[in-house]
TrEMBL record:
Species classification: Bacteria, Bacillati, Actinomycetota, Actinomycetes, Micromonosporales
A Pfam family recorded for this sequence: FR47
N-acetyltransferase domain boundaries: 104-230
Protein name: N-acetyltransferase domain-containing protein
Top-level taxon of the source organism: Bacteria
Length: 230
């Protein structure tokens, strides 16, 4: 039943290591520890039924540290029905269902090159969910300038057999506006698309430049929200 769903977030969560499932008529939930650095519950279904499922079964099982995530309208409605649950963030799930026809550049990095990625993340993207050596972060691609200095990078992180996941996209500020991040994202996207149904990422609405760049690569946007127990 779960894998018949058309909800990509639910399907992505369902294939994560250690995922736990709850299903009842009108509601589905998948709990994953340490997914994108948070304990999360992907939810899908009728708001009233989902709220009841969370209260009756899911939260008593996993605890209040887990954060429901799903369609923005669903999470907002569920949060209004569950005492102590509040919307904690609104953002975008962006996805493409095949290779992108855009200029791509970069390559997968070797382990001894990852300290340069860490330095870029620390300096220019400290809020990144993906970091070298982090849980669920599989590998990094990078793009170098003519001097061999790393100028853009992106991670394959929290990917599953069906859903490739792109994260940790970072560019040196002096090199922005040249399409470097888009080129390395195209490379990672096309690498991850092979044998999978889609490639996805999470983006903040306020980061208009990033959302625009992903849309120009062919990524479609679905509004998401996350909630937390206050």
């Amino acid at each position: 039943m779960l894998h018949d769903s058309d909800d990509p977030v639910l399907l992505w969560a369902a294939d994560q290591p250690g995922a736990r499932f709850w299903i009842r008529p009108g509601a589905m939930a998948v709990a994953c520890a340490d997914l994108c650095t948070k304990d999360r519950i992907a939810i899908h279904g009728d708001p009233a039924e989902v709220a009841a499922l969370l209260c009756d079964e899911v939260f008593p099982d996993v605890g209040a540290t887990y954060r429901p995530i799903g369609r923005e309208d669903l999470v907002t409605d569920v949060a209004e029905r569950v005492d102590g649950l509040e919307v904690a963030g609104r953002f975008a799930w962006m996805e493409v269902t095949g290779p992108v026809d855009r200029k791509q550049a970069g390559r997968w990095l070797f382990d001894d090159e990852l300290p340069a990625v860490t330095a870029m993340i620390d300096a220019y993207f400290p809020d990144s969910y993906a970091r070298p050596g982090g849980s669920g972060v599989h590998r990094w691609a990078g793009l170098h300038d003519s001097d061999g200095t790393l100028v853009a990078a992106a991670a394959d992180a929290w990917s599953t057999p069906a859903v490739g996941f792109l994260a940790g996209v970072v560019t040196h500020p002096e090199m922005r506006g040249q399409g470097l991040a888009q080129a390395v994202c195209a490379y990672v996207t096309n690498e991850l698309a092979a044998g999978r149904t889609r490639v996805a990422l999470l983006a903040d609405y306020w980061n208009v430049a990033a959302v625009t760049a992903y849309k120009s690569l062919g990524f479609d946007l679905r509004p998401l929200a996350a909630a937390k127990v206050s």
